[in-house]
Design goal:
The complex is a heterodimer of chains A (about 260) and B (about 375). Chain A has helices spanning about 35-40, 80-95, 115-130, 140-150, 170-180, 195-200, 210-215, 220-240; strands spanning about 10, 15, 20-25, 45-50, 70-75, 100-105, 130-135, 155, 185-190, 205-210. Chain A is an alpha/beta fold and about 260 residues long. In chain A, strand 9 (about 185-190), helix 6 and strand 10 form a beta-alpha-beta unit. Chain B is an alpha/beta fold. Chain B is built from 14 helices and 9 strands. Classes of the chains: A alpha/beta (about 260), B alpha/beta (about 375). The interface of A and B includes residues 58, 107, 112 and 212 of A.
C-alpha cells in the first residue's frame, strides 16, 4: 500500500499518469478555457469528439487549445453502431489523433445510453487493429468482463446518465465492476459534484472522467480544481483503507456476552 | 399505427378545454417533477403556465446547459430552387406568385458552396420548392455530391419524398431532414394548401417517420407558428417529436419554432404569436424533452434571438439568405420570406462568444457511404 502521491500512478495502455481526473472538451462556453481547465485540474488525459474536429481548421479549432503533452482520447460520439464507431476511430488515427479511442456507441438519443453489445464488437475490432480502447458502458459487470476479455485498456462505466449530474446512482454495480475487473475502472458520466467523484475513488475506482459538472459550473476553472482535490482525497482515503462502518454501536455483545459470564 | 392515428386520439376539442382548465397548482406540481408526461407538457402550454415563465426558463436553461453545454451549432440555408407546383397561401414561392423562378446549376452550387464554406460553416441546409419535374432527386443528388466537398453535414428541407428516395440522398451524404407539418389542424391545412402535392396532409405527416426508417441521422419537425392557435400546434409538434423519439431512439429528433414572417403574396397570419409565447413554447418543449434539438432561424430578430440563447436553443442559422442564388447574384431576387436577423456568420459567432456561448461550426463528421441504420 502506498500513500505517496508521487508514485501512485494511473496506468492505462502501458502509460503512467500522475492524475486520476480525465476531462472533456465538448461543453465549455469557449475552447480557450481548455488550457486553464487543464492547468487547474492537473489532468493528463483529455477526450475530444471527432465529430467536432475541423480537419481543415479554417476556423477556431478545439485541437489548437489542447496543451502539448496531454494524452488525447478521441471519442466516437455520434456512433450508433459498431461499424460507425470503428470508422470514426480509424479516421481519428488517420488524421493524427493517435491510437487511443474512447468508444461511445449510443443508439438511444433520448437517454444517451450506450449499447453494450455493439461496444464489445467495436472493441474487439479496434483492439485487433492496435488501438488502446477505453469503452464507455453502462454499469454492467457482465459487459465489463467481456470488454476486459476483448482487450480493453480500461472500462468506463457510467455513474448516472450523461449530463444528469445525479452522482453514483449505479453504485452497487460499479462496486462489482471495481472489485472484479483487473483493468482500470474510470467512472464516466453522471458525476455532478466533487464529493461524488471523491466517493467513487473511495470505492476503489481508478479514475473519473468529468465533463458536464466542470463545464456547467458558474466558474469552470475553479470547479476543475475542486474535482482534482476531491479525487486526490478519495484516492488517498482508498489507499489508507477506511475503517469498517458499523450499522449499530459496538459497545456490548448482547448475543455472545454469555460466553464470558461467570457461573 | 402511424403518427396520424396517434394524432387522431388528441385532435378533438377536449384538448383545448384541458388547457383552459389548468390551474396554478397543476403548473406548480409539474414544475416540481423530474420527468414530464404528455399531460404535463400540455399543462405547461396553458395560459396559466404563462405566469410561471421565469421558473420555466430557469429550469429549461439548467437542463439545456447540462445536456448540451454552452454551445450553439451554426448552419446556413442554401436555396437551390424556387420552382414550385404548390399554392401554399403563406409562402413566397406559391406558384401563383409572380416572382423570378430560378434554379442553381451544379456549377453555381459550387460557387455558392465555396462562398459559404469561406465563412467556416460546416453545416449546410439545402432547400427547394416543390417541383420534382424540375428539381428532382437526381438534381439534388448531384448538388449533394458537390456540397460534400465543402461541408461535413448536409441537411435538407425539400418536398416530401418516398422512403427509398430518402435512402438515396442519405447515401450521398444527407444526414438530416427538416419537414414541417406547417399546421396540425387538418381542416385549416386543406384551406392553406388548395393545390399541389403538398395538399396531402397524411402523406406529409408520415414523412418524418419515413426518413427515420430510411436511416436519416437527424429529423426535425415543427409547425409554422401563426397559422393556427400556437398552443395547439406546439402540442402536436411536441407529440410528433415524442412519437419519433420513442420509436426511433437512434435518430436525433429536433423541433423548430418558425414564426410567420412577411413574404410576397400578402397572406396575413390568423393568430398573433407573441415573443412570450415563443418563450413558453420553447421552455415547455425543453422541460418535456430534455434531449430534443431546438432550432431558431433568422426569421426572428437579432435582439430576440440573443435573448433566447439560454432558454433551450441548440441550433441557429447565420448569414442566411432565402433567395435562390442570393449570395452570388447581382440583381435583387425575392426570397421565400424576409429575414429578420441579417447578421453575418462572424457577427453571430462574436455575439455568441460575448454571451458566453461557444459557436460550433462542426458537429458531425460524414462517414462516407451507408453504415447500417436503415430499417423497415
Amino acid at each position: 500500500m502506498n500513500t505517496e502521491n508521487a508514485t501512485d500512478f494511473l496506468t492505462i495502455g502501458g502509460q503512467e499518469f500522475d492524475s486520476r481526473l480525465l476531462i472533456g472538451t465538448g461543453k465549455y462556453p469557449a475552447d480557450d478555457l481548455i488550457p486553464e481547465i487543464v492547468a487547474a485540474s492537473g489532468s493528463r488525459i483529455i477526450t475530444v469528439a471527432l465529430r467536432r474536429v475541423d480537419f481543415a481548421a479554417t476556423t477556431d479549432n478545439v485541437m489548437q487549445h489542447i496543451p502539448d503533452g496531454m494524452q488525447l482520447l478521441p471519442n466516437t460520439s455520434g456512433a450508433r453502431n459498431a461499424e460507425e464507431a470503428v470508422r470514426i476511430a480509424r479516421l481519428a488515427r488517420a488524421i493524427g489523433c493517435g491510437n487511443w479511442v474512447k468508444i461511445e456507441v449510443i443508439p438511444d438519443y433520448k437517454y444517451l445510453l450506450p449499447d453494450g453489445h455493439e461496444t464489445v464488437r467495436a472493441t474487439e475490432i479496434l483492439v485487433e487493429e492496435g488501438f488502446v480502447v477505453l469503452p464507455y458502458i453502462n454499469a454492467d459487470p457482465v459487459v465489463a468482463r467481456r470488454l476486459e476479455n476483448a482487450g480493453a485498456a480500461a472500462v468506463m462505466p457510467l455513474g448516472a446518465p450523461i449530463g444528469s449530474n445525479r452522482g453514483l446512482t449505479t453504485r452497487e454495480m460499479l462496486q462489482i465492476i471495481i472489485d472484479d475487473i483487473e483493468v482500470p475502472v474510470v467512472v464516466d458520466a453522471g458525476i455532478g459534484k466533487p464529493s461524488q467523484a471523491c466517493e467513487a475513488m473511495q470505492m476503489g475506482a481508478d479514475a473519473c472522467l468529468v465533463n458536464t459538472a466542470i463545464a456547467s459550473a458558474a466558474n469552470p476553472v475553479t470547479m476543475a480544481g475542486a474535482f482534482a482535490a476531491a479525487i486526490r482525497a478519495g484516492r488517498l482515503a482508498w489507499l489508507a483503507g477506511p475503517g469498517v462502518v458499523r450499522a449499530v454501536a459496538a459497545a456490548s455483545s448482547p448475543l455472545t456476552g454469555f460466553l464470558y459470564e461467570q457461573e | 399505427m402511424g403518427f396520424y392515428e396517434c394524432y387522431a386520439v388528441y385532435r378533438d376539442g377536449a384538448l383545448c378545454r384541458r388547457v383552459e382548465s389548468t390551474t396554478d397548482a397543476d403548473v406548480r406540481r409539474v414544475l416540481s417533477k423530474r420527468t414530464l408526461t404528455l399531460e404535463d407538457f400540455l399543462c405547461l402550454l396553458s395560459p396559466v403556465a404563462g405566469l410561471h415563465l421565469e421558473q420555466m426558463a430557469q429550469q429549461a436553461h439548467a437542463l439545456t446547459v447540462s445536456q448540451f453545454g454552452r454551445t450553439m451549432v451554426l448552419f446556413t440555408p442554401l436555396y437551390l430552387s424556387n420552382f414550385c407546383t404548390n399554392s401554399c397561401l403563406y409562402c413566397g414561392f406559391n406558384q401563383t406568385n409572380r416572382i423570378v423562378r430560378r434554379q442553381l446549376t451544379v456549377a453555381e452550387v459550387d460557387v455558392e458552396a465555396q462562398a459559404i464554406a469561406d465563412t467556416g460553416l460546416k453545416h449546410i441546409l439545402i432547400l427547394t420548392g416543390d417541383a420534382p419535374a424540375v428539381a428532382g432527386v437526381d438534381y439534388i443528388e448531384g448538388c449533394c455530391k458537390v456540397l460534400n466537398r465543402y461541408f461535413s453535414a448536409i441537411g435538407m428541407e425539400i418536398y416530401a419524398l418516398s422512403q427509398a428516395d430518402y435512402r438515396r440522398l442519405i447515401d450521398v451524404g444527407v444526414d438530416s431532414l427538416t419537414i414541417y407539418q406547417e399546421t396540425y389542424n387538418e381542416a385549416l391545412y386543406r384551406r392553406l394548401h388548395p393545390k399541389g402535392p403538398k395538399r396531402d396532409y397524411r402523406f406529409r405527416m408520415d414523412r418524418p417517420e419515413r426518413a427515420c426508417r430510411a436511416g436519416m441521422r437527424s429529423v426535425n419537425v415543427g409547425a409554422l407558428l401563426g397559422l393556427d392557435d400556437w398552443r395547439r400546434d406546439i402540442f402536436f409538434a411536441g407529440l410528433h417529436a415524442q412519437y419519433l423519439l420513442d420509436r426511433y431512439p437512434e435518430t436525433e429528433i429536433g423541433i423548430s419554432l418558425p414564426r410567420m414572417r412577411p413574404h410576397v403574396g400578402g397572406f396575413q397570419p390568423g393568430w398573433i404569436v407573441e415573443d412570450r409565447h415563443i418563450v413558453q413554447a420553447m421552455t415547455a418543449l425543453r422541460l418535456f424533452m430534455p434531449r430534443v434539438g431546438i432550432t431558431i432561424s433568422t426569421r426572428e430578430s437579432a435582439r430576440f434571438r440573443d435573448r433566447l440563447l439560454p432558454l433551450g436553443v441548440t441550433r441557429m442559422s447565420a448569414g442566411s439568405c432565402t433567395a435562390v442564388g442570393g449570395r452570388t447574384d447581382e440583381g435583387e431576387n425575392p426570397g421565400q420570406f424576409e429575414i429578420s436577423d441579417e447578421r453575418s456568420v462572424p457577427e453571430m459567432a462574436a455575439m455568441l462568444r460575448r454571451s458566453g456561448w461557444q459557436p460550433v461550426f462542426k458537429d458531425w463528421q460524414a462517414l462516407g457511404g451507408t453504415v447500417g441504420g436503415a430499417r423497415g
